[in-house]
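writing this on my phone so excuse typos. first protein, seq and then structure
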Amino acid sequence: MSWHHRVWMYDRLNPTRGGIKPEFYDKVEDFIETISKLDVVKSEGKCRCPCVKCRCTNYKELNIIKMHLWEKGFMPNYWIWTEHGEIDDIGINQMGFNNCGEGGSGSGANVEECDMYDISWEDNSRRYHEMVFDSVGPEDPHVEAKNFFDLLEATQKPLWEGCVHSQLSIAVRMLCIKAEENQSQESFKQWATLIREIAPEGSAIPRDYYEAKKLVQNLGLKAIKIDCCSNNCMLYRKDDAALTSCKFCEAPRFKPISDGGCKSKRVPVRRMHYLPLIPRLRRLYASMSSAPHMTWHIKNQRDDGVMIHPSHGEAWKSFDRIHSDFALEPRNIRLGLCSNGFTPNIQFSKPYSCWPVIVIPYNLPPGMCMKDPYLFLTCLIPGPNNPKANIDVFLGPLIDELNELWNPGVLTYDIVEKKNFVLKAALM
């Protein structure tokens, strides 16, 4: 049986625009339709799931198999569907083609690279990796990553059979509509109740704003609110968290309490928002949409004098020479940082500006690293005035995380390699 028509199995992700290729969606649908005719599916409604995680060891319903394949990709070397009714009549896995599509990363399978008579250095490296991987086996994710994967799998189940939305996707969609339309919590609850009445009984649609927000917050990407001095002198954090006035200019931390006010509800004069960076860098290696592309910079080096990516510049190469230990791990992340003023309410007569601080992971290909999903908002510095020279005060939480990422690093689970590793990052 020829395998060339199944190159699509390991060509899942679009390396330039990001996301899953439409052809992969269609081919997975064809695969599901094919296996739906199996006797085991007709009798039990389940069969073996060939995704990277299940590896044909777990029996799943067809809609779950479809979602697993879209999210994770096919298990390595599954050119012949032996667990789904096909017969391996030519022993293809013994003929040297087992390098293609390693890990189901979807980075693109090149048939010419799989020629058994013209094996490149990269092919030999991959074969060696597979030998080690097969002998040692995959590692379990660390506790935090495992909790995330378990939660994500639970919330990705369809609301009911045949529904295109999961519990997570409907919650995110509802919260987006609430924010865009400036709806009240009571309005949110009323139309959430209406949707629940229309949907089949037992669907996991959030009942109210609190339930939807709690579901999304459980994913771990939380914003931290930090009180700050009205004159940009300091942040009330760490050893200064209990202060009630600025230790430099003595400006009050809280607004005056009105008559009859409750002391437990004191309102700060000024507050910034900080979105932790480390959890989002970890998620880059927890998603098959980004993890296979995080080593693009090491696989696409060039010395022809043309610079299409920061990794081709002299600054990047000089950094690698100086910090050779950091450069030895290609999964370590190089970051860029930028900030600019932003006026959220231009229609108001009273001018107001805030300053978002954005961090960019440069490991990704040129077509991905500057796309919105990978522009990480970290600090949202409040206005109305430009922080100017005092911007470093507001960067304190980010600097702390960058120091931790530089040394000692953070334990991270790589979904492609199925291994835990110590992730480090540097601001270029």
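second protein below, same order as before
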Amino acid sequence: MELTVKLTTQQVIDFIRQMPGEERLAVVLALAKESLPGRTERMKSLESNVQKICAERGLDWNTMTDEERQDFINDVVHEDRECVQ
């Protein structure tokens, strides 16, 4: 006899939260590992796009500091907004 149980996402989350810490971590790591291949490809593509945008603006992503990179991304994300002072 085969039994199928249908759970909502919230029920699954609640169930996992009841697990001991090490088992919870194992579940999270297993799920994260499954998403890594696609994530890695997306990150490479996004980084390539950012490098291209930098080059178009006369900047070199690879020589920028973390702070410069954060400022650059912030500027790009918010460049369509009017600055109110």
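Residues 21-56 form the longest helix (36 residues). thats all i got for now
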